[in-house]
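Annotated sample (chain length 200).
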Amino acid sequence: HVYQKDIFDLVDDIEVDLAYCDPPYGSSNELMPPSRVRYASYYHIWKTICLNDKPKLVGVANRREDVGDTISSSVFEEFRKNNEGQYIIIEAIEKLIKNTPAKYVVLSYNNNGRATFEAINDILKNLKKKISIFEIDYKKNVMATITRTTSGWINDTNGGNKEYLFLIDKNGGTEIMPEIKIEKIDIRDLALVNQRKLAF
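Output written by the structure step:
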């Protein structure tokens, strides 16, 4: 089945064995305008292909009018903080993991995203479930090359661009998560990855 609806509405209507969650990352660059990293804005061409329509275009890049900041936005790209000083996106990730009706949840997230690895790890610790964490190295995306208006990335010394896969066994135990163990995966070594046995 293919659904097109808010994820927090969708989780009330489905039940699956495994859910793969790949939310927008936003940006960890405090100087980057939020409008620069909206998924809907950057991938607008795919919406046009799927809808096969002729939308009104705006701006120098001729993007769809209906993918602007005020029309098409995601809580996972939110730059604001709540009353406790925590980024709203952290709340959204925690809500997503808790509310997803699946035996296993795989959360994919980038080390240059608005939510830090430490923040996500704190969420997982509070869940008290069995967790496996995998790390994959990638080249930085196009946003990492934009420096003229933002004075560069604040994370230029963070050791590159990494994708983390957090595998959560929602049915497993209620014990405190042990010390973090991150298993590195080389995506070029597909044979090894396909044969890899998970921790649980």
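Annotation: Helices lie at 7-10, 39-42, 44-51, 88-99, 117-127, 190-195.
Annotation: Confidence is low (pLDDT under 50) at residues 190-195.
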